[in-house]
Amino acid sequence: MNQPRIAFLGSRHPGAAQALASLIAAHGQHEPADADVICALGGDGFMLQTLHRHGSLGKPVFGMKLGSVGFLMNQYRGEGLVERLQAAEPAMLRPLEMTAVTESGASVHSLAYNEVSLLRQTRQAAHLRIQLNERDKLELLVCDGILVATPAGSTAYNFSAHGPILPLGSSVIALTPIAAFRPRRWRGAILRADTEIRLQVLDPDKRPVSATADSHEVREVVEVVIRSSQRHSVTLLFDPEHNLEERILNEQFLT
């Protein structure tokens, strides 16, 4: 059985450093650019950090849970890693591309594998206009914020905001308001993944808004454009009994 070249990366979780040293001793260590596979040790936050740092390399990523939340991770076991990698099932994820324009006129670009969220910065509710493919769909949304979630991220912040869980590979994204005040009955929308979403901040001086792509925050935005990326993708590897598609399905039946 051939030994794959593995790049081991560990979070700051207390158990990750010990696991990292043990796995490197057993399998060796390679730089991510030279590896066949990246093995991330931590929680979902560290997995997202790994994807942002190394996703452009095109290397598959196998995560093992050594953190507080591990929806995107496999269970940690120190033994049998090579066999697990060979039996792992791939899941391809396409991130969202965010372009945020600030009050100063700066344009900031970022990727989001989970979601892009807009949130009010002060006690004042946000006033937003929603355009889809350059057509007005909602002239005024009064809310604490709004988010756009990928299928992989639909079980996270999106679900907590009462948004829908999206099947993996469904080629749709979720547009979900956060504490909408007007219109009260609007609960969001499920959109085709190729939809261009433009969110305009009304009265930004009085009602400032920030935009966050996963963990990358941009303050005092006036407009945010979001679309599913056609240029970027990453491949996550999962144990057959814990594949991501099955996890997303099971989330819809939790009581």
From TrEMBL:
One of its GO terms (biological process) is NADP+ biosynthetic process. Its EC number is 2.7.1.23. The keyword Secreted does not apply. It is found in: Cytoplasm. NAD(+) binds at residues 44-45, 114-115, 144, 152, 155-160, 179. GO terms for molecular function: ATP binding; metal ion binding; NAD binding; NAD+ kinase activity. Keywords: ATP-binding, Cytoplasm, Kinase, NAD, NADP, Nucleotide-binding, Transferase. GO terms for cellular component: cytoplasm. It catalyses: NAD(+) + ATP = ADP + NADP(+) + H(+). The keyword NADP applies. Belongs to the NAD kinase family. This is NAD kinase. It comes from Alkalisalibacterium limincola.
